[in-house]
Sequence to fold (160 residues):
Amino acid sequence: MSIVVWTAIVLLFVLSFLGLIFPVIPGIFVLWGGFILYYFGISREELSVIFWAGMVLLTIFIVLSDLLANSYFVKKYGGSKWGERVATLAVIVGSFITPPFGILYVPFFAVLMTEWFIQKDAKQAFKVGFATFVGFLSGTLAKFLIQAIMIIWFILEAIF
Fold:
């Protein structure tokens, strides 16, 4: 039975990383699914209170890193509130358009067109569009690292 549960946990962890490429997959919730499956399927005693508190804090960091990275870069390069909103929506839409690359070019072009329409300056619009791209990559890298830390911490708690 535990082999089946461990296999499911590993699959959930892998699926959580796919959420970085396909934003429609709620990666952090899938990752938590692995933790909860371990708790109910294998051991209710191995994972400490410190582990659970740490996972909550790291989950908050993941959510904030995604929101703040994109917003920071769009604002830094003079983007509008509409540019920020369009960037967020375009990441979701882009995940359905030629995945996984749609999440890279759809937000760029969507923000480029939005900012060009609002600011009437092609050079500035391009800068903001590129900032959206950099913001997305920065947020994704941060999420990847935090998820990796969460999984490593889980493995250390479960094994030792």
Summary: The chain is about 85% helix and 0% strand. The longest helix spans residues 122-159. The helical segments are 2-21, 27-41, 49-76, 81-94, 102-119, 122-159.
